[in-house]
Amino acid sequence: MDKTDNSTNKMPRFLDKPINTRCSKRLSTARLRTARGFRLLAWQTVCLTSLWGCATFNTLNDTETPLLQRQYIYSGTRLDWAAITENAIALRKFNVKPPAYPLADLPLSFTLDSLFLPFALCTEFFH
Predict the structure, then answer these.
(1) Is residue 25 predicted with pLDDT exceeding 60?
(2) Ramachandran assignment for 86, one of left (phi > 0), alpha (psi -120 to 50 degrees), beta (any other)
(3) How far is 97 from 112, CA to CA, in rounded Å?
(4) Integer angstrom CA distances of residue 45 from 90, 102, 104, 106
(5) Rounded CA separation 20/11 (Å)
(6) How many Å apart are CA 94 and CA 8, to the nearest integer?
(7) Above pLDDT 70, what percent of the chain?
(8) Among 103, 101, 116, 107, which residue's Cα sits nearest to residue 57?
(9) What is the pLDDT of residues 63-103, one digit of tens each?
(10) Is 101 exposed, middle or buried (0-12, 13-18, 19+ CB in 10 A)?
(11) Which of 17, 70, 73, 83 has a CB 3.0–4.6 Å from the CB of 98, allowing a cystine?
(12) CA distance between the termini of the chain
């Protein structure tokens, strides 16, 4: 009788672990692949936009314009917007060549300008 009980109580090898553990491992692997994909996409976006030139860095690194005539607050976003709307007067104020693709650069410039806003405010008020 012991022999029959042992043979009927044997479980297949793939069912050694509980079902929830197997499913959670598959889900965590899928999440990891998705996270890697998003990180790769973000890195490619940053690399491509750095090839075009970021308007924020171009306007803040402008050495030809005197300090009192520079525009610091949201300067990259304003340069992109002037390039998109083809505003020649605003483009002349910056003294910097706008990026080749200002519409693609606009969200990144807005993000960087928002990060640099405290420094831009200090520079604007105390220069």
Answers:
(1) no
(2) left
(3) 18
(4) 28, 14, 10, 13
(5) 16
(6) 82
(7) 67
(8) 116
(9) 787 777 788 889 999 999 999 999 999 888 888 888 888 88
(10) middle
(11) 83
(12) 94
Euclidean distance between CA atoms 58 and 95, whole angstroms: 10
The whole-angstrom distance between residue 77's C-alpha and the CA centroid of its chain comes to: 16
Kind plus residue range of the DSSP H or E element containing 35: helix 19-52
User: Cα 73 to chain center, whole Å?
Assistant: 21
Return the structure tokens found at 78: 């304003």
Percent of the chain at pLDDT above 90? 14
pTM over 0.70? The answer is no
Residue type, 39: R
pLDDT at 23: 54
What is the pLDDT at residue 51? 52
Taking CA atoms, 55 is separated from 47, 99, 123, in Å, by 15, 6, 18
12: left (phi over 0), alpha (psi -120 to 50) or beta: beta
